[in-house]
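Board work, copied verbatim: Biotin--[acetyl-CoA-carboxylase] ligase
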Amino acid sequence: MKLIKLDAIDSTNDFLKSLSSQDELENFTVVTAENQTKGKGQMGAKWKSETGKNLIMSVLVKDFLFDNEQVFNLSIVVSLSVLDVLKSLNIPDLCIKWPNDIMSYNKKIGGILIENTLKSDGRIVSVVGIGLNVNQTNFEELPRGSSLAVICGRTFDKNELTILIAEKIKEKTELWQNEVSVFWEDYFNSLFRKGIPMPFKNLEGNNFMGIIQGVSPVGKLQVLLEDDSVSEFEIKEIQMLY
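↓ predict structure ↓
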């Protein structure tokens, strides 16, 4: 496993994407940075991180996705990999806020952004960006954010976390074909607020009540509405209010 450590970069995802386009990089190559000036989240959101305190990493994943209809499978693998590592470190009350935010209690401690590139030969090459709040303790500007240090009252080794997460992603991608149903079940069982009535907001800005029922094979959130119908939503189509 190749590990590239940077002091500062605009985006580890962009750096790794550029690197992978110019060179036949080893699968599961990892890029980390102490500071990221243009970190990205879902739907173009910015990911802000205190310099040197948190885990900022991107992992190259090849030969896993072969169909655009299967891209959500990698989200499941990566989010469960992060959860497994954090559970091994006794981080409490962990869950996944659809599609792949990492939560402890009701606080966001991490996020995942996967960017896929379709190659001319039909292969799909993925760059998995992971941001994990590790040793940052000031969240005045992020009231819904927290970190491993705040939750557990101690500091953590970011380098150890990097290796553990990258190795777990590699392990789970290799297990996927034989344990697809197990992975899906684990993902569903880990979903934040599943089965609980909660408010949502749609694209028109209207609030409504619903109950998370599951996730479709292509990654759409399935919500039971007040009229007993079940609707499916893309990430840009719905916002959880909690």
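Residues 158-175 form the longest helix (18 residues).
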